[in-house]
Structures are given as structure tokens and as C-alpha cells.
Model the fold of this input.
Amino acid sequence: MDIHDKARIHWACRRGMLELDISIMPFFRYEYDTLNDSDKQLFIRLLEQPDPDLFNWLMNHGEPDDSGLKHIVSLIQQRNQQRGPLAI
Done:
């Protein structure tokens, strides 16, 4: 997936699991454009992971083995926490 194809990325953010949508959608909406190209690519790689893994990582029930994915998960958690609760 191309890091500049925001329509496809937006579609990939929609997971069908409320907990994931609450974490991923606001991050995409408010933070994606501020990321450097490397972090955008990591975000896309994260979206390619299975929902159960995403859920566990974003809810702090484990972490990815891949250091890049670990970085983007941490960034999502930090930015979402700084921004505070938002509606999807």
C-alpha cells in the first residue's frame, strides 16, 4: 500500500472491532499527516497485522517482536494518550 494513498489507508484502519477503531482511527485522522515517511510505512505494516495481535499490542497485553512495529504501537499509544479521548 502506498503511504500517500490515504483513502486506502483510511479503509484499512476500519477494523470492525470497537477497541481497535478507537485506537487506530483517531491516530490516523489526527497524526498520520505529521509522521515521517518511515513511520507512515510502519503504520501501514501495522495495519497488515491480524486483529487479535493489534488488539493485544494496543491494549498492552503484549508487544510485537518486530522493533519497527513496537515503535509505531508505542507512538499510537503515546499520541492517543496526549490527545485524550476522542470520538471515532
The chain has a mean pLDDT of 92. DSSP finds five helices and no strands in the chain.
